[in-house]
Sequence to fold (494 residues):
Amino acid sequence: MLKKVIAIDQGTTSSRAVLFDSGNNLLDFEQMEIEQHFPHDGWVEHDPEEIWKSVVTVTDKLIKKHSLKSTDIASIGITNQRETTVLWDRNSGKAIYPAIVWQDRRTADLCKGLKKEKGLEQKVQDKTGLLIDPYFSATKLAWILDNVSGARKKAEKGELAFGTIDSFLVWKLTQGKHHKTDATNASRTMLFNIDSHCWDDELLQLLRIPKQILPEVCDCVHDYGDTSVFGGSLKIGGIAGDQQSALIGQCCFNPGEAKSTYGTGCFLLLNTGNKKISSDNRLLSTIAYRLDGKTTYGLEGSIFVAGSAIQWLRDELKFFKSADETEALVKHRNNDSKVLVVPAFTGLGAPHWDPSSRGSIFGLTRDTHIADLTAATLESIAFQTRDLIGAMESDGANFSELRVDGGMTANNWFSQQLSNILNLKVLRPKVIETTALGASYLASMHAGLCPDLESLKSNWICGKSFVPEEKDIAGLDEKYNNWLSAVERTKGLF
Ligand code: ADP
Fold:
C-alpha cells in the first residue's frame, strides 16, 4: 500500500486531522470544535488540555476509521493557529495558565507603554518584521509570567516551557522529548530576529523573559521526533503556522504570488522571495517558509475578525442557524441599503492597528433587514481586504489576481463581491483545505514522497474563478469611501 500523510490542523475554532494519499489528494478528515472562552472584554482563551485532547481524538478517529497501521503513515505534518501562547510545566506537561489566543487584547496597555519608548517600535520592526501589538506572543507570555503566582521564578529555574500551539503539540506528542518550533511560528512571537534567525536577547530582556523557556527553532521540513500516542511510531516531519501553510498549500512559491484566507480572521500573505520587505504601511514582514536553511519571506496583512463576524450574526444575533445560509439570505437585501458594519470586536488589525476600537454599525434605517446587516458584514471583510491590498500596493506590490481559501470562500456571493470590491480576479482552488494541504506537502517532503516545492505546482487546480462584474462595480467605490470614514469614526472610540 502506498503511504499516506496525516495533517493535524489545530485552528482557532476547531482541530482537524486530514488524511492525504501519497500524491497529496485529500481522502478524508475528522473535525472537532474547541470551546472559546471570553472571561473579560477583549480577552480570548482556550483550554490547552482541551486542544490536546481534541487533536488526539480526531487523529485517532481518522486512523481507526481507515484501519491504518503505523507503517501505512509516512509522516505527520502540523499546522496551527499562530501566536496563541502556552506556558507549561516541563515535569507534568500541564499548562500553568489557559492558552492566551492571538485575538486577545489584554496587553493593549503594556503595548501602549512599549510604543512610547523612543525608537522601540522601529527596532521591533527591524528585528522581527512585526509591530508592537497584543496580537503577538511576546506580551502574552510576559503577562503570564507577571500574573501567575510563582511563574517567573519557575521559568528562571528552567522548570517551564513556552510554545505556540505547534510546540505544545510536539511536546505532548513526543511525551516531552522535543521542545521545538518552526521558523514561521517563531517569526510571530515578536521575540525572534528574522534576519539572524536567533531569539533576540534585547527583546527578551525588555520583557524579562528567561531564554531557557524558549523552544529550538527549526526548518519547516525537519525531524520533529516520533510519536507513539496513536500506537506504533509515527514521524512528525513538517510544521508551519496556518497562514504560511495555506500559502504553501496554494502553491504561491514565486515572489509576487499571494493568497488570502477567510476563516475566523482573514490573512493576506504575499510571497516576497528571499527579500524581506519592510513595510511603510503598517504591514508585517514575516517568514513564509524556511527549507534547508533557506528563508523565503512574506508580507502579511492580518484582519482579526472575518468568519467570526458571521458566527456573531449566527450565535448572538440569531439571524440564521448555519453560516452557509448567508448566501441565500443576502439575496433578500435592500439594494439601496447603505448599512456599513465595522466588525472591530477585538480592535482593528492591519493597516490600522488600533486595539481600542470596538465594532460599530452605520446607516441603519427603519426598514433595515437582517439580510442588509448580513450583506454589510460580508462586505466589511471584502472592504478590509481592499485596505490590505491598497497598503501592499503602496509598498510596491502588484496584484494581477488573488488566490483565496478558507470557510467563507465557499460562499459564492461573498467571493463575487470580493472580486467586485477589489476589482481583481479572485481564484478559488478545487481544494479549499489549503492549510492542511500545506502541512501535508511539508510532511511528504520529509518522507521523500515529493522532492521539492517545484514538483507540487501542478497540484494546484482552480475550482472557480470570479471576475469583477461591471454592473456591480459602479457605486462600490463610493461605498468604499464611506467604509473608510466609518473606520475613522470607529477608531479610538473606547
Ligand atoms: P478556521 O480554520 O479559522 O477555524 P474555517 O476556514 O473553517 O476557519 O472557516 C470557518 C469560518 O467561516 C467560520 O467563522 C464561519 O462563520 C465562516 N463560514 C463558513 N461557511 C460560510 C459561508 N458559507 N458563508 C460565510 N461564512 C462562512
Summary: The two ends are 60 Å apart (CA to CA).
